[in-house]
Amino acid sequence: MNVNKHDGQQGQNGDGAQVSTGTTGDTAGLPEAAIPELVIISGMSGAGRSTAAKCLEDLGWFVVDNLPPALIPTMVELGARSQGNVARIAVVVDVRGRRFFDNLRESLSDLDTRGVTRRIVFLESSDDALVRRFESVRRPHPLQGDGRIVDGIAAERELLRELRGDADLVIDTSSLNVHELRAKMDAQFAGEEEPELRATVMSFGFKYGLPVDADLVVDMRFLPNPHWVPELRPYTGLNEEVAAYVFNQPGAKEFIDRYSELLQLIAAGYRREGKRYVTIAVGCTGGKHRSVATSEKLAARLASQGVETVVVHRDMGRE
């Protein structure tokens, strides 16, 4: 998998206080600047939650693993009263909390009531990848009980279904190694200033399946395939001759212009809704020529519009 980054223009205490436990804490009366950033890391067991948390810890975040959801508001309050010593908090929440996990929805609602800005990062992975990972470490799935690993995975997916739908950022780690996952987290959180919107433009091959973390999907198979041009077949969409061939086809340039305009409209809506991340999946048959060239072109357009953009070529090199 190849990852590139397109840099666009980025937009613009009290001592001795008593702190309550549970969800009865209160950030009211504190200056807005004192309330820490909050990221909630969740997702499938075996999908890389620990790696994502470690990455944020290395970036200077205060990370709490397996915190009962009912204590998240209290954690935010402690950070708000730390006189700036805890400005960014990441909390790992998952099914290991068992019955405590049921309190997550109530805690999220509590945070919203208090005006706390929080983001949810959800780590996803395919069943096959998760089974391989559990078998490689010879550990049971936390929800499998007396059943099989796949039974535990199915139960966990159902339990996390609503949370996944609420996630601001979904990362599919099925084909990622540890270093690639860290690169994705770095791309999203390493910036000194928080941009208005961050985009991942991912090329992929339909024959390898749709990316499960895609917010928008683009199908470039309406253009002629360079695979059938012998002198272009060995190269990828990163090659200038391949890119020229793709964008000289009828409708190619018009598509880039009009879809870029559409993305501006969508991006404005995402900003209004508080969504900070978007994954645009651009597909062709094998994920080697048309999708790669188009992803690079769309990413450059987004960057020129002030959207910080990362390009990932998921299937390039698989043939």
Unreliable sequence segments:
8-25
User: How much beta, percentage-wise?
Assistant: 15-25%
* Morphology: globular
Oligomer: single chain
Strand order of the largest sheet: 1-10-7-9-8
Q: What is the mean pLDDT? A: 84
Please summarize the sheet with the most strands.
5 strands, mixed
The topology string of helices and strands comes to: EEHEHEHEHHEHEEHHEHE
Number of helices: 9
Annotation, overall tally of beta strands: 10
What is the helical fraction, as a range of percent? 25-40%
- Class computed from helices, strands and strand pairing: alpha/beta
Report, as a whole number of angstroms, the end-to-end distance.
12 Å
Radius of gyration, in angstroms, nearest whole number? 22 Å
Based on the model shown, name its key terms.
9 helices, five-stranded mixed β-sheet, 18% strand, 319 residues, five-stranded parallel β-sheet
What does this structure look like?
It is a single chain. The protein is α/β, with parallel strands linked by helices. It is 36% helix and 18% strand. It has helices at residues 49-58, 72-80, 104-114, 127-137, 149-166, 178-189, 240-247, 252-272, 290-304, and strands at residues 2-6, 37-43, 62-65, 88-92, 118-124, 169-172, 198-205, 216-219, 277-284, 308-313. The chain has a five-stranded mixed beta sheet with strand order 1-10-7-9-8, with helices on both faces. It has a five-stranded parallel beta sheet with strand order 3-4-2-5-6, with helices on both faces.
